[in-house]
Amino acid sequence: MPTSRNLENRRVVLAARPLGIPQADHFALETTSVPELGDGQILVRNRYLSVDPAMRGWVNAVANYAPPVPVGDVMRSFAAGEVIASTSDLFTPGDLVSGMFGWQRYAVVEAATARAVSDRDLPLSTALGVLGVNGVTAYWGLLGVGHPKAGDTVVVSTAAGAVGSVVGQIARLKGCHVVGIAGGAAKVRQCLDVFGFDAALDYKAGDFSVALDAACPQGVDLYFDNTSGAISDAVVSRLALRARVVICGTASVAAWEPWPVGPRVERHLLVKRARIEGFLLFDWMDRYDEAVRDLAAWVRGGQLQYREHVLRGFEQAPDAIAMLYRGENQGKLLIEID
Ligand SMILES: NC(=O)c1ccc[n+]([C@@H]2O[C@H](COP(=O)([O-])OP(=O)(O)OC[C@H]3O[C@@H](n4cnc5c(N)ncnc54)[C@H](OP(=O)(O)O)[C@@H]3O)[C@@H](O)[C@H]2O)c1
After folding, report:
1. Which single residue of 83, 92, 139, 191 could bond 180 by disulfide (Cβ 3.0 to 4.6 Å)?
2. Cβ(288) to ligand 1 under 6 A?
3. Nearest C-alpha to atom 18 of ligand 1 is from which residue?
4. What confidence category does residue 3 fall into, taking pLDDT thresholds of 50, 70 and 90?
5. Sequence-distant (≥ 6) Cβ neighbours of residue 63 within 8 angstroms
6. What is the pTM of this model?
């Protein structure tokens, strides 16, 4: 039986439950021992920890698709690393894996919950971003729910981010006219120069509404909504006939208590016979590999560009989610702990 005894585990735990966006003082670093492996388990040495906007929802005590992380527990997160011990037939030491391993150095998990990283010619970090949750969300949210058609005007918010940048590039590959919305001039330039969008708009600039009209003269056929809030209010009022709106994220909403209110959208939907549908990656897990296969081929072929923003060391973790909500990340936000 492989043993994990004598291994020292560094981990980041939830120290206090936040209201809204978790800040650095809601987390604490601690050192513990690593539990022994039970049957069918693997011991993973994490190399990259993921930082995702959804983690805000995982620590707040509001209704969500998963129960909140208990105070004192290791912070729930995706991570990628190497199997160093296994009591399962599924993996052997040396395999690279990704999964819900948490913000910690070592994770003991059920082998069946881990995903093999098979694209070993590409950096392991991509298994958390462009070939991981973000890329697969972009792929199925756009193609499975949004159904883009060549010639459509597709608008995407958080356009320079991990999900948004992939959404826009896939839409371009499908022959759409792509308009990205991002915060600040540098991200707008990145959307145009790196990701090749047709237009990119700074929602923080005073002329946003005018710029949106100019970029979408025929209206918006497909809106991939990562923000909710004022950005989405502006886009939904410009929908084209039979438009589709994919609700993927709510990055602009700081807290759900009190419940935010905004303009009513029903009239726009009725007049334009438009459709709004929520997307959750967990509903598409059985088609995860299909997406990764196409995404990896596009990355290798140079049709899909990605950017990563890598923080180094556990000490960076407590402030990392707040950093996302301050818009300070330039690409997929990761913590490297090697
Ligand atoms: N439904 C699903 O299954 C699923 C899965 C994965 C991700 N998502 C969602 O996809 C979205 C993007 O996630 P990601 O991982 O790719 O993150 P990301 O876009 O790389 O980073 C988050 C970005 O949100 C933007 N943001 C923060 N506060 C904002 C505000 N008040 N108003 C407008 N934008 C704001 C910032 O970009 P700017 O600097 O441009 O403002 C920030 O860089 C998130 O909403 C996330 O929850 C959903």
Report:
1. 191
2. no
3. 161
4. low
5. none
6. 0.96
